[in-house]
TrEMBL record:
<keyword id="KW-1133">Transmembrane helix</keyword>
<feature type="signal peptide">
    <location>
        <begin position="1"/>
        <end position="17"/>
    </location>
</feature>
<dbReference type="Pfam" id="PF03901">
    <property type="entry name" value="Glyco_transf_22"/>
</dbReference>
<keyword id="KW-0812">Transmembrane</keyword>
<keyword id="KW-0328">Glycosyltransferase</keyword>
<feature type="transmembrane region" description="Helical">
    <location>
        <begin position="228"/>
        <end position="247"/>
    </location>
</feature>
<feature type="transmembrane region" description="Helical">
    <location>
        <begin position="188"/>
        <end position="207"/>
    </location>
</feature>
<feature type="transmembrane region" description="Helical">
    <location>
        <begin position="365"/>
        <end position="382"/>
    </location>
</feature>
<dbReference type="GO" id="GO:0000026">
    <property type="term" value="F:alpha-1,2-mannosyltransferase activity"/>
</dbReference>
<dbReference type="InterPro" id="IPR005599">
    <property type="entry name" value="GPI_mannosylTrfase"/>
</dbReference>
<keyword id="KW-0256">Endoplasmic reticulum</keyword>
<dbReference type="GO" id="GO:0005789">
    <property type="term" value="C:endoplasmic reticulum membrane"/>
</dbReference>
<comment type="similarity">
    <text>Belongs to the glycosyltransferase 22 family. PIGZ subfamily.</text>
</comment>
<keyword id="KW-0337">GPI-anchor biosynthesis</keyword>
<protein>
    <recommendedName>
        <fullName>Mannosyltransferase</fullName>
        <ecNumber>2.4.1.-</ecNumber>
    </recommendedName>
</protein>
<keyword id="KW-0472">Membrane</keyword>
<comment type="pathway">
    <text>Glycolipid biosynthesis; glycosylphosphatidylinositol-anchor biosynthesis.</text>
</comment>
Amino acid sequence: MWRRTYFLLILVRIYFALSPSYLHPDENFQGPEVVAGRVFSYPAHETWEFTSAHPIRSTFPLWLAYGWPMYILRWLWEGFRYEEVSPSVVYWTLRVLMLSLSVVLEDWAIQELVQSRRARRAALLLIASSYVTWTFQTHTFSNSLETLVVSWSLVLIQRIVEDKVGPSLGMRSGSAHAANDPQKRSGILASAMLGFFVVAGTFNRITFPAFLAVPSLSLLPHFWRKPFSLVFIILFAILAAFLAISVDTAFYTPGDFTFANVLHNPVITPLNNFLYNSNPANLAQHGLHPRYQHILINLPQLLGPATALLFLLRRSQITMTLVSALSGIALLSVFPHQEARFLLPAVPLILASVSLPRVQRNFWIAAWVLFNAVLGVLMGVYHQGGIVPVQMHIAKTNETVSQAFWWKTYSPPIWLLNGKNEQLKTVDLMGMPGDEMLEQVGTALPSCRTRRPPKLGDRSTVYLVAPRSAYFLHPYHDPARHEDISLEEVWNFRRHINLDDMDIPKDGFWKTMDRVVGDRGLVVWRVTRICWSEQTQPIS
């Protein structure tokens, strides 16, 4: 029964992985957009993290995660003599990649970390039925990669401590092909891998060590008995750090790469990141939160009914896995900038440690299913779900567009325009007040134009992309209203909800829900300026 349920939940994971929801701009701007711009020469937008004098984002884990599949795609396309790989192909390939990493590596790690067969089955079902697994783990977040590296670092720590020969190492103690001392060889290999993982995880996100700080203490007795294990961890960590610094130095330093640059002017992105985030003034630009944000708000937002199970834990359930999760949350709570996705590595670790309640178990299961179904559909299908399809539509449209203004949406991924952004300027107006938005859009329009839609090839064609729930725009696409600017609907994507456009204190809960959910969708409007005098001629 549990196998059928597990495989059904994998199908659910596949569905959400292939849905174009957009959880946060960082899933593009801190990953695929940067690498795709180098591999395929797509015109891409690099954010301030990559362009500042002291860059704080490492490209080393990006090449490890996204670089090789992009190069394989380019090699295949060149081999079959196709045209350049379409960004949409790259986008969906990376989604399938993250789905595969989630199903294979995340679930495999949990099977190794949970000792009891019965508890292992329950853990796999809980993790596979979590909306966090369906959505965040199938998107290209650095937090999603961090989750995998944390889980496998714990697996390696467990193998080192227990002197296990893991199946991933390709040898067992009874193997005829193993060396004379397979446990020694497996311990050395696990130590070397752990050294590499620690560096890769830290260069990916500086929050990574928080989840390993306390569990790594369990290695101290092992190091006392087998000091060579520590030597191999340090040795491979140094080699990995040198490689990562070399990759970043080559990426951020103009001109040809030389090892002299690594020695004399190295770019150490984790250090830059730590120094940047150590300044409260910098964190204030991104939002400051109370110290209890992670524990009282973010964690329940990710776990839902499973949060209550933490209070039902028995002493026997306090394992290294749970200690990693709770200590990581505690250490991250020290910093004032706290987003829910920072806790992603803790979610599978907690779900692998708790057990279902003995009292009212069916009620809890119903609440768990309902919570994840609602959040899964909201975050996995509708949350900013029109941004990627709209960009792909604009990339394929035959109409020549000079500018596209985006209003009340997340920042759109530029690289999906398939090179059109060489002629098309994308302007992100974010949540700018309506009057200011119209003023900005008006600067892109000719001084006067007759009431006719632009012809194909008209260089002055301007798009405005905005949610249908933005009622401020209603007068401008109503032909009965005499406004200076007219909006004509070109295309729309229905499965889009903008949670940042909710004004419950002003409009009330039900009226807000009726507007945001009832009038869901993202619309592409063609913008024209209207001259109501019949004598007025369009200015060329």
